Amino acid sequence: MTVIALSGGVGGAKLALGLSRILPPDELLVVCNTGDDFEHLGLSISPDIDTVAYTLAGVANPELGWGRGDETWSFMETLGTLGGETWFRLGDRDLAVHIERTRRLRAGETLSAVTAGVCKRLGVAPRVLPMSDDPVRTRVRTDEGWIDFQEYFVRRRCEPVVHELAFHGAATARMQPDFQAALADRQLKAVVICPSNPFISIEPILAVPGVREALAACPAPVVAVSPLIGGRAIKGPTAKMMAELGMKPSAGGVARRYGELIDAYVCDFADMDQVAGIDAKVTLGQTMMKTLADREALARTVLGAARVLRR
Amino acid sequence: MTVIALSGGVGGAKLALGLSRILPPDELLVVCNTGDDFEHLGLSISPDIDTVAYTLAGVANPELGWGRGDETWSFMETLGTLGGETWFRLGDRDLAVHIERTRRLRAGETLSAVTAGVCKRLGVAPRVLPMSDDPVRTRVRTDEGWIDFQEYFVRRRCEPVVHELAFHGAATARMQPDFQAALADRQLKAVVICPSNPFISIEPILAVPGVREALAACPAPVVAVSPLIGGRAIKGPTAKMMAELGMKPSAGGVARRYGELIDAYVCDFADMDQVAGIDAKVTLGQTMMKTLADREALARTVLGAARVLRR
Question: How far apart are CA B302 and CA B191, in angstroms?
């Protein structure tokens, strides 16, 4: 394993796809946030793992940023007519993954094993891992008190003002063993923090005991990619959340949030002025990933930024 | 409540539909076998309740005899590509009922309450009840030993030779209270044993403690409808199973199996010679139900057979 990518959902998945297209499959490990996993309708749902897996498999829905492109919606439509809960949209094909995952987890398999099985069947070549096989659940303190992450993120569309985040279960969660081993591997060339929301996608991973220490001690440079361009997120509540948490929503603000954790920082040409004075080695590039070529180009930029720093 | 219909799946549901079209909704109670209920893919599935509910709602699949006519199959197709179990076919819309039922049962609702909720949403006017809110599970002793009912019925397509049936849980199951009350109601006009498989659809109902006694004591005649015509079942393994259990597969054989339980017996004109000498009052009619008019006509024949016997 030579490159580890830490990823949340859509933005992270795009860069992971770029990396998967320029690296041999056995040289990329994508470690996914599981803080926004939850149990819903009796099912174990892992949104970030699925977004990454679907994106790498080429079946992701490019418009929605979640779910599959080849989806049908009979289940959800009928559930609505039955008076069931429809605020979290589950497509008919997507549902097969949740049913299968739930069944295997109940039978005692780890989330890693289930994820590996699903990825293999989807034809995903690089390894995709949860940050931990133990449950971690992000909760959000808002003006209305603490609420579960998906309640905040999907049901309330990120409208409540965020004051604080907590990662329940993180303190006792164990790093996924292959993730831990890969971080200590002398062959490791780079750790990439994908352009995901720092607070809800990356910090849950960092909250697992040992991850921050392993990143500090690992033989390879840690390169983060800014999720903001011109102070705005491409998708999701990163900028809004930063402002609510008392930070300036900017590429520089994200870099400062990561602080000493990162050795290099890739941000958009547009944000050149925002990153003056940060500790990490800055690389400017085009971070907007509209096309497949954009994803590959950003992946090359990121690996290039790591190469010049290799210790 | 003036008519109670005891029903299994497709044949019973057809007659229940006929009854529902000639009786006011509050004068019909359909009590369904739950012996073929099972847990599959983490879901609580009640095939006979659903077949009856879908049939009464007008959404049943007329070709398959199970599931819905307006169905799509994305879930099952995708589950197959994931290596999941696909021998029990679950359509995308059908799945919504199973997910909703499973969720509500886990939340502590009774199967009766869940069934009432689903039927209301489907627009089913007559009441549909499980025979019991306690789980009863039919098992089949075959040449290969005891196997679960759906394993026998769906996965093995009724191929194994049947030697014995058992209804696990029946001995401690309680009659559904409204079923029990309806059987004791002085207004009861008839109990109809629908043309369902006696061994796997009706006898699980009869195995619930108190049902046989309540039928014997009830103020109304019990009228059974033969599931066989000319020694053959319209659908399902009734005739095969009778032969394997050492009985002659005939309309008369079914009547003798019910014995003193029934006061009247409706069988097809074709089987006139088969029912000589049975104890119940025989009414001949057309029992094949191809059209909606056939279902209504058979319902009238059955209610007529009850009327002449009313005690």
Answer: 10
Pick from B234, B243, B207, B258: nearest CA to B13: B234
CA B55, B58, B61 angle in degrees (round to 5)?
A: 65
CB contact under 8 A, A95 and B83: no
Distance CA B153, CA B8 (A): 13
Both tokens of residue B276? Answer: 């000589």
- For B83, nearest residue in chain A (alpha carbons): A121
For B234, counting Cβ atoms within 10 Å of its Cβ (0-12 exposed, 13-18 middle, 19+ buried), the class is middle
Domain count of the fold of chain A = 1
Cα–Cα distance, B223 to B282 (Å, whole number): 9
21-50 in chain A: CB under 8 A from chain B: 41-43
Assigned token pair, B218: 């009830």
The partner residue sitting opposite A99, judged by closest CB among B42, B91, B103, is B42
CATH number of the structural domain spanning residue A292: 3.40.50.10680
B93 vs A77: CB contact, 8 Å cut-off? yes
Instruction: Give the amino acid at B98.
Output: H
Mean pLDDT across the stretch A194-205? 97
Contact yes or no for A139/A146 (Cβ under 8 A): yes
- What's the mean per-residue pLDDT of chain B? 96
CA–CA dist B17, B194 (Å, integer): 11
Residue A118 lies in a domain: yes
- Within chain B, residue ranges assigned H as helices are 10-22, 47-57, 74-81, 92-106, 111-122, 149-150, 177-184, 203-206, 211-217, 238-244, 251-258, 292-307
Give pLDDT tens digits for B57-74: 999 998 888 899 999 999
- Residue A164 is assigned to a structural domain of this protein: no
Q: In this model, does residue B294 exceed pLDDT 60?
A: yes
Query: How far is the alpha carbon of B42 from chain A, nearest alpha carbon, in Å?
Result: 6
pLDDT at position B223 over 80:
yes
Angle at A175 between CA A172 and CA A179, to 5 degrees: 175
Q: Which range marks the domain in which residue B240 is found?
A: 3-307
Q: Is the ipTM of this complex over 0.90?
A: yes
Residue A217 lies in a domain: yes
Under 8 Å between Cβ of A112 and A135: no
Tell me what the mean pLDDT of segment A219-248 comes to: 94
The H or E element containing residue A165 is strand A162-168
Return the sign of the alpha-carbon dihedral for residues A18, A94, A111, A153.
positive
pLDDT confidence band for B252 (50 / 70 / 90): very high
Q: Token pair of A145, please? A: 């008190």
Residue the block writes with tokens 């209504």: B296
Q: How far is CA B297 from CA A34, A273, B17, B29, B37, in A?
A: 60, 84, 11, 19, 30
Tell me if A146 is assigned to some domain.
no
| Backbone phi, psi, residue A65, to 5° | 85, 5
Q: Position of tokens 């796997």? A: B200
